[in-house]
Specification:
mainly alpha, two-stranded antiparallel ribbon
């Protein structure tokens, strides 16, 4: 076991190493949010996370366009 000054040095070294790893990872929330946007509107190219939201978007923003086949069975 490290004691005293050696322990403090070890903790500082570990903290620095962990900070570098965290910095190298990048923005976790941004990449996760981007990966969750699965459905893309064919008309305006906006992205939605689930089919229910996609259908609501399509019905409100593009009422004159025909409904895409993947939204036929979805309840809004």
């Amino acid at each position: 076991m490290a004691r005293g000054h050696q322990k403090i040095q070890s903790q500082q070294k570990n903290a620095k190493k962990q900070a570098e790893i965290k910095k190298a990872k990048g923005h976790d929330q941004k990449t996760a949010a981007k990966a969750a946007l699965v459905f893309t509107c064919l008309v305006c190219k906006s992205q939605m996370p689930d089919p229910k939201t996609f259908k609501q978007h399509f019905e409100s923003k593009h009422p004159k366009s025909p409904l895409p086949p993947e939204l036929e069975g979805v309840e809004a």
